[in-house]
Amino acid sequence: MARTKITRRQFHNMSAGAAALGFATNFFIPSKANAREAQLVFWLQPNFNAKADDLLVQQTMEYAKMQGLSESDVRIEKVPGGEVVPRMAAALEVGSPPDVTRVNEPNMVNWGPNGHLVDLTPVIEEMRTREGGINEDTLLMARINGEILGVPMGIAASAAHVRIDKFREAGYDKLPETWEEFIEAAKKINQPPFFAFGMALGLTPSDSLVDILSVVDAYGGSLVDAQNRPAFESDGTIEAFRLINAMYNEHRIIPRGAVSWDNASNNQAYQSGQIAYALNPTSIYSSLIADGNPLLDVTVLDIPPGGPAGRHGTISTDYYGVFKKSPNVELAMGLVAHFMKPENYDAFILEAGGRYLPSYPAQLQDPFWSENPAFDGLRAAARTGRSMFYPGNLTPALSEVVVRTMVQAEMQNVLVKGKDPAAAVADVQKQMVETFQRLGEPV
Amino acid sequence: MTTDNTDAGGVAYEQPIPLWERISNSRRALAFVFLLPTILVLSVVVVYPFFFALSLSFQDKTPGVPGRWVGFANYIELFGNSEFLRIVYNTAFYTVVGVSLKFVLGLSAALVLNQKRRFNNIYRTILFVPWAIPTVIASLTWLWVYNEFNGLLNVLFTQLGLIEYGVAWLAEPRLAMWAIIAVVVWNGTPFYTMHFLAGLQAIPKELYEAAEIDGAGTVHKFLFITVPSMRTVFTITVMLSTVFTSTSIVVVNILTNGAPAGLTQILPNFSFNLAIATGRMGLGSAVNMVLFPFLMIFIILLTARILRKGGD
Amino acid sequence: MAMARARSEKITRAIGSVVLVLLIVWTLAPLYWMVTTSLKMPDEIYGEDIPLWPRNPTLENYRILFEQTNFLMYFRNSLIVACSTTVLSLVLSSLGAYALTRLQFPGRRLFARGLVYTYLMPESLLFIPLLIIVVSLGLQNTHQGLVFAYLGFTVPFCTWLLMGYFMSIPIELEESAMTDGCSRLGVLYHIVLPLTVPALAVVAFFSFTLSWNEFIYASVLVSDVDVRTIPTGIPNFIVEDVFFWGPMMASTLISAIPPLVVYFFFQRYLITGLTLGAVKG
Fold first, then answer.
1. Residue ranges making up the domain that contains B270
2. What distances in angstroms separate CA A232 from CA A201, A204, A426, one per listed residue?
3. Between B and C, how many CB-CB pairs are < 8 A?
4. pTM of the model
5. Fewest CB atoms within 10 Å of the CB: A193, A351, C71, C223?
6. Residue B62 lies in a domain
7. Interface of B with C in 29-88 (CB under 8 A)
8. Which residues contact A235 (CB under 8 A, 6 or more apart)?
9. Do residues B177 and B91 share a domain?
10. Is the pLDDT of residue A16 over 60?
């Protein structure tokens, strides 16, 4: 093919054209001015259910109209979970965070003590007036320095998603109650590429910590003690680490890839029918329904297996928070109150389809919860549920431990590098102590 | 051009020279004018943030809260961290191997695309495609390709009977880093291909013709004409790619986030996790600064020759 | 001897063809996965039995993309930002490269190296101070703000690229033009640039692709849906721990089209040649 030669004329024409294009695009298209024109800014973090999200949008616009705001006064931004942390960091630095957004427990610990959030006690008081009141345990994490910095928008329970058909084939009519029995059952079920236990073990905070702690908890271990001091190093924890190591390396009932799983991987593994057990919030279950996945018929929800120290599910609370930098705090608080009005809130919880358990115990009477047998398991998991940080509380130091995946990192040293479980647990304790000391928290 | 430069009394005087001509005649002034827009853009968009990040590394700071000066405490904490050195090693390995592979593949592709073929324009477009895909998406796609259960690789290999059941490409200690590098190479090779192809064009055909008359073979032509002529292009491409590769967080973030056991953790990810996820902006910034001296020396060495040659 | 040369040429071509095939397969494999996934219904993406080829191909994912998301708006915005960035990169880097290669001035070498130093700080760290600046300039949520930020990324590299290319142009061409009364700017525009068209093509490709695919700055500097670009639409397909692979792959494929169109139509400029004939003649 002959090489093309560009003549001078062609070149001039091209550059003139390019310049024209460049200027045209800039001048003909109007651009928006500074962000903070809107009176009310709500960062909507999508729940994995579009209908629930739409409902929140609707409720927001309803409230805006009630307050006499026009549509352009309200800005609802859909901010996916992964984007929240960097964008919020940037927004806080610039001094223009949103007015209202969802605040999960780690967020609460980051934004609360630093004085970014508004005291929402008046809204809580109003919520308490509903018959049956509110689930007071949910306020635990939000009480900071005597103020209540978040309104509980729902309780997220992690439930064991179980392939009951596989367990029945192995001779068990329900999920075994202890880890030791579970391992016995798992050995029968396991048949690579089908694995019994979809345990998340990756370095992404969330799923993997919940999975590891559910074993640790069964043997009496915990991250902190009741005085919020690092207490990871204990016989129970070491035993749990040994057990997990055995499950991964000896019995091989966990997929090898679990050490590089992110939060979505156990979802995908379960939905592809590759694992018989996954501990996860109900997003897996909702996806099965939404995709019309045949595995739905053979899936039950249950409490994860337990051990000598008991059998507990894991729960956490999500909140609505209002930022102090909001130009109109009253307006923002009103939006939260509006969301939490019983009729609005009940509608949202039902649309969310099990993603959240209601903050108002009264709501649990709704037939929605008793109609679906799967939710029995979910409610049992929630009833026995404890925070990951039991018997203590999430604090800034503990939050750093969580976000930096210190527990998972040492677990991986055991699984992949053959480190001694006792040494690994000791190292977690050491790092925790260092962090707590650095942040001035008691050890 | 005739201008009468004498006044009524016959005394010569200077015609005032128009500003533009004055500037055009002074190399310095002209250089300044030519570089002005660049200077403006860069000082606002890069230089200020740069120094912001540098000063961050000497502070203890969380987002939204004013920072507190701590001197070298962050750096001291880093060097006391046992993981840190291993992360530095990982980063070096990842960069060197990644850049080398991209170089080899990019050069091969450019040489091949330079040969006369019928549908070259289609081949070229195809080979540019990985670059048209945002790295985020490329990583997510490869995540799926590597999937232990139904990823492309495992489905293919099991159907071909090479393995019994899926391999966890991203979790096996000896495979994980190579899996990551493969994605980086896939996504970044077109960058090299494009430059090398452009660079090959600057080599005058006459040089090859003269060599052929002297009886030079293909390999000889390549080694003694192509390579020396491309030296500047090679240098610039490798230098820029090294910097880009060693500072990108996306691939590791999406594929493994450092797993298994920190074997795939590299400096920019470590920095991002500390600064943004954990909210320790000072420490995260310090991690980043550690790379600087090495990269700066690297850049100075590589550009020494070029900058000496450049200009008149 | 001519025979030997012809044979060695044939061998080179044959090797070249093999290499080409391998490269194409390697390049297309993940794309194959993307294309087939975008055409599959959820049960074929997530189910137990994943086919290599969609058994019931569907355009549903594309429909969702166009009807349920703001994709077309993002597309328009990406186009605006990418075109502006490309044109401005070309202008700024040509001027800069010319100054750095043809004009001697103090600090030339420092400035040239400084351009590369600007890349040492990753965008994953710079985005916060950048937001501060953009907001204080009143450019938050504007196309101009994004273009401005992207120029900070494209200009240093493009300048270096053109520098490398300019240096290979013999100085005699310009000198003879200047003795004929041509100004520096004129020399740049009429003589140097036309001879460096391949490098300009690379500059254009690079700037366009970068602005088209850039994610971090786009998500932080612009939150208004009317101004957002395509890459920021992608995370909408990842909700907490659920990935919506079908629409995500569909969106990727569609958004890969403009860069590919740019490459396809302009890649012939990439292979324009430089002949010494211009000098000797």
1. 71-309
2. 18, 20, 8
3. 299
4. 0.87
5. A193
6. no
7. 30-32, 34-35, 37-38, 41-42, 44-50, 52-53, 63
8. A219, A220
9. yes
10. yes
